[in-house]
């Protein structure tokens, strides 16, 4: 055993009591139900509606963070706010992939928020699974932090390599593995049928394009969960705070999509910023692992991490806006056909 005895003993510190976990999960489910009720009747989302919901989903996590700070102290408060900022940043990149998928599948505007809601719900489920697996790994494996560090640094390198490649690639839905797999088992009709996932055609059950795009979105959720959960565990070891930051970052994405739809294509340097952030957190995790074995190895304080993350995001936002002052919307492309 190493000196990470507090982890290997299976005692991860957490502010989440059973009651707090229950209340939080119930609150997340209630918000999801509310979102489904809002999207029950398909309609195009006005900017006023999107701004209203976005303001709500920004105020709610910030108010929750203030409560965490006052109830459990500044350390937990800073960890929560830093983790939330990291997850929100990664979620914006998630939104860009959603935007490309919706365009590639020619999703009608009235169905866009329903697709996003399915994607967000799937992301929440997947994050919960990965958070539980991550907590179990931290409790039983002394080298779990090192594994997480390697995952984040490898992801950062890939993001940087893709960003530096410079070549544009179109989204080809026919090459997506998830789409090819579905078409192998069931026929697919050409036209959307409202919010229906399947229809009966020539006596057989067939999928609608809505089913294809939802599965494609869920497939991207798996990739983002692999990146985001280790990233926030690099900020806090508390599974409850990891879950809360993920939940709050994801819940507001449906409304944020419609607010940022035009601006997303201008964030051309976001991948560079995310690569730096993920690499930084990876180094932080590596140092934390090494500190448990060699106490003389320094660690990076969470408050310093918060400063670095904010600084990187500010810089890439400003440079992106400057670089795209005269560019037409939609110039930025990405690759999603691996799903």
Characterise the protein shown here:
Residues 1-10 and 332-339 have low confidence and may be disordered. The chain starts with a helix and ends in a 16-residue tail after the last helix. It has one domain. The radius of gyration is 21 Å and the shape is globular. Helix 3 (47-72) crosses helix 10, helix 4 packs antiparallel against helix 8 and helix 6 (144-165) packs across helix 8 (209-233). Helices cover 70% and strands 2% of the residues. The protein has 12 helices and 2 strands; from the N terminus they run αααααααββααααα. It has a two-stranded antiparallel sheet with strand order 1-2. It has 339 residues and is mostly helical. Strand 1 and strand 2 form a beta hairpin.
- For the report, how would you describe the main beta sheet? 2 strands, antiparallel
Q: How many strands in all? A: 2
How many domains is the backbone divided into? 1
DSSP strand (E) fraction? Answer: under 5%
**Which regions have little confidence, pLDDT < 50, spanning 5+ residues?**
1-10, 332-339
H-E order = HHHHHHHEEHHHHH
Q: What is the subunit arrangement here? A: single chain
Terminus-to-terminus distance: 40 Å
Q: Numbering strands along the chain, what is their spatial order in the largest sheet? A: 1-2
- Taking all Cα atoms into account, the compactness measure Rg is 21 Å
Rough shape? globular
Number of helices: 12
Structural category is mainly alpha
